[in-house]
Amino acid sequence: MPYHEFECSKCIPERKQHAVLKGEGEDITSALPQGYLNTIPGTISERGCAYCGAKHVIGTPMKDVIHISHGPVGCTYDTWQTKRYISDNDNFQLKYTFATDMKEKHIVFGAEKVLKKNIIEAFDAHPAIKRMTIYQTCASALIGDDIAAIAQEVMDERPDVDIFVCNSPGFAGPSQSGGHHKINIAWINQKVGTVEPTITSDYVINYVGEYNIQGDQEVMADYFKRMGIQVLSTFTGNGSYDDLRAMHKAHLNVLECARSAEYICNELRVRYGIPRLDIDGFGFGPLSDSLRKIGLFFGIEDRAQAIIDEEVARWKPELEWYKARLHGKKVCLWPGGSKLWHWAHVIHEEMGVEVVSVYTKFGHQGDMEKGIARCEAGALAIDDPNELESLEAMYTLKPDVIFTGKRPGEVAKKIRVPYLNAHAYHNGPYKGFEGWVRFARDIYNAIYSPIHQLSMLDISEHAIPADRGFATARMISDTALSEDIRQDPNLREYTGGFDSVTKLRQREYPDFSQDKPQRQEAV
């Protein structure tokens, strides 16, 4: 077993079994770290808890819902506005967050009365919203508050409202993935089948495991519309509460993120006979294959192929431009769950980058299995790394960029490694053909950013002359410079306006001046 032991974790010998190096011709069973286990005492994990997995990942993207946490306000604050789950109702679910704000006195005397009071106040404050989700936290679970009974009382008193209860305390699983399971099963047990939808097409799907990060869902929904497919519900990005109650009437469940939502797909198949089709919206090749599969299921392959041909013709030249400039760049792919294997192979094949490390904080063994299988030999695979291990990996591997979340990403910036937000994106959406080019553009900009290049210079050694000042492009022109500055060869290239900046970048990156294809704006 090719285990990798971090120097910083030698005092925690159990951690050695949570990291492996993939060797040439390595059988996947001998290159798999231990995963989806309770965090080892002594290592400071950056995982989210089960409550976070239920509310933050799955629940909050529902747009027309009051999302209220029954627990301390800190739980709610930690899961508010940290992802860009946009919606078409003016982002109600992002603007507001609700909590019962449990205190010590509620732990002693109970908090059911304060919960009911908060539910009524929230509905009164937002009379246009008639739906609510209540999330249990560790505090309310430990004292045994009967949240379901309180919710039923309110619904009996106010027949026009509907409330979903998600019992997902933080300790309900070893990571946030436990919360994914909790809310999936609770939703199908409590709400699916309670609304009958209007069917307008011969081809009806539930789009499952899609959270509309910066508009991902809208991109895919446009492709489905062009194929003549009705999206009955989206679980849960930009999803409507009542639409999600009607999931039982779909002809097909199209599953994007298997890690977070395969549970409800499997139950819909068992209970209602709805088949499951796994797809991938990232990358030209995987997305094309996915659209063809959906078309094949409904017998409309020609519609799918027409979309593929049009989109590839429009965006492939620009993707190739970026690929030529990203070829051989080293990437640490540290996104969390399913993006580990959604991205591992396709960023190598379609963008030319080399994946030197993969990790997951809450994924299961299956996620790591697929991720390792799809990355290059020599890659370092890590389960649930702590901050010191992440730093050691970056110092050792020397990546050009990492794809991860904000917490490890901000740490990477401190050691001058640029990062892209793999969870909420930098400039998304990243799904779809245009989105994939947008992702490549963000990688290019992260690596070749002039500001990033300047961060490598030690100004204490006057790599940029500090005694003369620093003039940037467009601040001054050559004619405005004093004669002594313009005659100084060490300073002139930094003060010559935009043309001189371009020449400086050409020296560092000879292909910088080559024109890339002009982007064709969508009509």
TrEMBL record:
Q: Name one GO molecular function term.
A: nitrogenase activity
Q: Which InterPro entries match?
A: Nase/OxRdtase_comp1, Nase_asu, Nase_comp1_asu, Nase_comp1_CS, Nase_Fe-Fe_asu
Which key words tag this protein in UniProt? ATP-binding, Iron, Iron-sulfur, Metal-binding, Nitrogen fixation, Nucleotide-binding, Oxidoreductase
The Nitrogenase/oxidoreductase component domain covers 49-447
Which reaction is the catalytic activity of this chain? N2 + 8 reduced [2Fe-2S]-[ferredoxin] + 16 ATP + 16 H2O = H2 + 8 oxidized [2Fe-2S]-[ferredoxin] + 2 NH4(+) + 16 ADP + 16 phosphate + 6 H(+)
The protein's matches in Gene3D superfamilies, at most eight in alphabetical order, are given as:
Nitrogenase molybdenum iron protein domain
Q: Is Oxidoreductase found in the keyword set?
A: yes
Q: Which PROSITE patterns match?
A: NITROGENASE_1_1, NITROGENASE_1_2
Q: What is its EC number?
A: 1.18.6.1
Per its UniProt record, what NCBIfam families does this chain match?
alt_nitrog_alph (TIGR01284), ANFD (TIGR01861), N2-ase-Ialpha (TIGR01862)
Q: Which family does it belong to?
A: Belongs to the NifD/NifK/NifE/NifN family.
Q: How does it assemble?
A: Hexamer of two alpha, two beta, and two delta chains.
* Protein name, UniProt field: Nitrogenase protein alpha chain
Native species of this protein? Symbiopectobacterium purcellii
